[in-house]
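Q: A reviewer asked whether we had any structural model of the full assembly, not just the individual parts. We don't, so I'm hoping you can provide one. Inputs are below.
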Amino acid sequence: MTLALDISAVKPSVIQRLDPRWKLAGVLLATLAMGWLRTGPAACTALLSAFALVLLARLPLQWYLRRLGAATLLFVVFLAWLPFVVEEGDLTFDLSIVALSLTGLEQLAILSARLVGMVSLMLVLVATAPLHDTFKAARALFIPGLLVQLVLLTYRYVFLLMEEFGRLRTALRVRGFRNRADLHSYRTIGQVAGTLLVRSYERSERVGQAMRCRGFDGQFRSLHEFRTRPADVLAFGLLAGWAIGLAAWDWFAR
Amino acid sequence: METPLAIVINHLDFTYPDGKQALRAVQCQVAQGESIGLVGPNGAGKTTLFLCLAGVLNAASGSLRVAGLDPRIPAERKQLPARVGIIFQNSDDQLFSTTVGDDVAFGPLNLGLPTNEVRGRVAEALTHVGLAGFDARVPFHLSGGEKRRAAIAGVLAMRPEILLLDEPSMFLDPRGRRELIHLLNGLAVTKVIASHDLKLILDTCRRVIVLDRGSIAADGSAENILRDTALMEAHGLESPFR
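A: Here is a predicted structure for the entire assembly that you could use as a starting point for your response.
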């Protein structure tokens, strides 16, 4: 499954050996810096650096590309129209039927570079440490516990929801339902979405009960004990320096 | 010498916020080490009773003592997870961590036990249920039987005195079911097993309580109650001796 972040496929690497807290702090800082970039050269440098980190983390190419593809596909809808929006003063490229905005194309390239770079950094993060450790590291970095638990439970139960959706889809198909652009289809899809919502709510209640029965008090605990080594501080320093340097370069180049 | 009581329930009532009364004057006692089958049709109140015993739901009236604690007193309710383990109908509701090892460790870590002891308990519980070496596995990828055993391991790791099992054989194939019976019979704790699988009840319990529409309809030896075809049919059940 494309969404599953199964880390068994990832080979041991320098990045994997880093303390999850320092790694998370560094990657979050780098991701924030990447999200702030506005100029082409800085965005391209950031993208290349993210690719270098992917190589350093030894992520299997197919594993990485499949997940990168799934994540970026979600944003295509929002980005694809950029070259077609021509504003006054924009340089255009006339294709007889439609005119492409060169400014829009440049924006598309910068946004895509930032997006791919940020997703790559996140994939490096989740692939090089068990998710449980990353969540515990997030708590150690004072990220609100509620947010961490929400992410954890969403990750765990999104697969069950997909299974449930698959079962509902099969049930619809065996009763002759075919998705068409008509009122009946829209109503059915709405009902399926409603059913999934109700089932998710009921499941969340049962999961909450199960957690309370095992002594859950809102605190996030893990067996992994963190230990800072000089290499962790060095890696964080490098990432932080890279992020600040890139942001400064972008700022002065605007 | 009389055996100490693990569970004492006196005139317990419970009504859901929508007005549906799920339990009506339930009254029974369970001795320490006893294994009891709780049977009844759908909606009889079995799960509600378990949730009251575990302190998740607060009963409106009546009294309740579980492992010597009153679930309605907040300070005592906090101690319940260490003493009472509940296995839910659907294992997916119980396995919420990203790996089996983390999930089994969840309860002991919440009890505030030292890391080394938690690791020991995790290994022991997984071995006990036949899942040694499954620590790093993702719960989502397990089979129905493995999920059930992982859920049981998560509760066993807390070393409870009382085990409440809600439909434990649900989603299990015949082999998984046999292994479960073997596992349950090997657990020397007080057990209350709610199930529609009356053959499993017969194999694991010596006493049976019939719950119907929130009230206890019969309480006696498993052999006698499950043989009583008229009683079984009157409460929407089927005798396993037919």
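A: Points you may want to mention in the reply: Chain A touches chain B through 30 residues (CB under 8 Å). The mean pLDDT of chain A is 86.
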